[in-house]
Design brief:
By secondary structure, this protein is of the alpha/beta class. It has 8 helices and 5 strands; from the N terminus they run βααβαβααβαβαα. Strand 4, helix 6 and strand 5 form a beta-alpha-beta unit. InterPro entries: Ester_Hydrolysis_Enzymes (IPR051532), SGNH_hydro (IPR013830), SGNH_hydro_sf (IPR036514).
Length: 186
Amino acid sequence: MSQTVVFVGDGLTVAGRWNEWLPEYEVQNLAVSGYTTDEVVASLPKVVATAPDAVVLQVGTNDLGWRRSDEYIVRNLETIIVELRKHLPGARILVVSVPPRERDYSHLLRSINRHLRQFAPTQHAQFLDLWPSMAEPDGELSIALTTDRLHLSDEGYAAWTAELKPALEFLFQSPPSSTAIPIQHV
């Protein structure tokens, strides 16, 4: 029986042909075009109801269009990760960096991703950084991977998938989570 992987996120995630690109998994794509971190927080009961073996989370770029601060976006992302861990203790969680886009956003995106990289392990989640394979040195999304410096082209999805496949393999080689040992008070 193949492992179920649920994708959660925004239009970048929903546009991926994950079933085609990841035939070794049973994929469900619950991402929705236009979703911000607020909508993903609200959709978590639907995600939890699927009881997946793994969750791939990638969301945050649309929040920038609503002029949300990096602190706001990080707080919502932390809430999503904590809630997934709380309600899906046996699931593996892969947090994907918010991908690069136009240069004007690179400072905010780097800040968000720095926080995600540090926070994900505290919830026994893995972090997948797409920036090394997608960003120009100035932090802008590589023109070879996009048509508009925001949405991904086929080449952009190929770059994401090339990073995602080994990340999922590693994810499934690791234990799903580790529960904290309760301290007994005497």
